[in-house]
Amino acid sequence: MGGAKKQKLKILHVVAKLDAGGAEKTALVLSSVFVQRSHQVSIMVYEDGGEFEKYIQPGIELISLHREWKFNPLKLLKMAGIFKKFDVIHLHMGHTLRYAFLSQLFGLVPSSSRFFFHDQYGLIELSHKIGFFLRLGIQRNFYIGGRSTLIESILAKTGKNPTEVFYLGNYVKSFPKSGIKKEQGRIALVSNFRFEKNMELAINLIGEFADQGIQLDIYGQIVDKDYYQKIAELISSSGLGDQVRIITTETNIQSVLPRYHFAIHTSRTEVYPLVILEYLAEGVPFLFFNAGEMTQLLAGSLRDFYIGDLELSSWKDGFTRMMSAPVDAHKDQIQDFYRKNYSEEKYYEECLQIYHQALGY
User: Fold this and answer.
1) Domains of the chain (ranges plus CATH)?
2) How far apart, in Å, are the Cα atoms of 287 and each of 11, 205, 308?
3) Per-residue pLDDT tens over the stretch 135-184
């Protein structure tokens, strides 16, 4: 096994399109982590023009099928030919698997060919019923879950062989911070607009400190239009139009985070919020109540960040604590915690071990 670890792999990450999304970001991060360690890495997209294509690092080849019609046999043949050139085919998201599975179903790749299907954000857990075709694709290939609850769900809902199911926690690379200075009293909230995110609490909280010259920037996509409208109206009716901004067009959140004094995460419920890792990677302290699977670890190690309930009075106490601290007060604490629990080397070794174990290296 010692010799196998030195073997460099040919790895292909596959997404339908490199749009701005969590799964697409994971594909980019994994590609970067492995190419920096001298593996041959490519990214294949079914369709061109994704927002995240510009973030592909040097040394990573972008391959496009230029697909316009899903069942074009020439595109299927081209895809299968590309697959045969790689040791590892790493698929992100269910619709990506469904299309790639056609190459196996029609015998266009060797019968021994196995893909890695990476479900970071809950496709299986959130679906009450898994479609027959997707189920076949999952049964044929290896499964990588981004959370322990996903592992439990895939085993319960599909009866898949546990030896073909793997866990790989999420990781976020730190954004270069040269020349970026934190701004006292500038606060971030990163969350898509939907009821569970409890943005009303954030607005009411800012209202309590309106005379202190603070600025709250809310970054997120409009998932629920009615909820977005409700929040916009609350901002207006509270007289906070000059102190609360809504930004829906930013696709590289990490590039703007380092300027913030701290962040607030007011969600009622969570599963595995990637934004928490982004805060940690960029050294941004944050107040939170629920961080899904990360809550216990965070609350135990970063006690000053944790708010035990969703009462406004509790958040006011935490907010006052953050506001009174220097902008870099928690810098070393965050860095130490992040390196210990979410280091790049740890992420690389865990993923490499999955590849080796599954492929018998």
Assistant:
1) 2-170 (3.40.50.2000), 183-341 (3.40.50.2000)
2) 38, 12, 10
3) 899 999 999 998 888 888 888 888 899 999 999 988 888 877 667 889 99
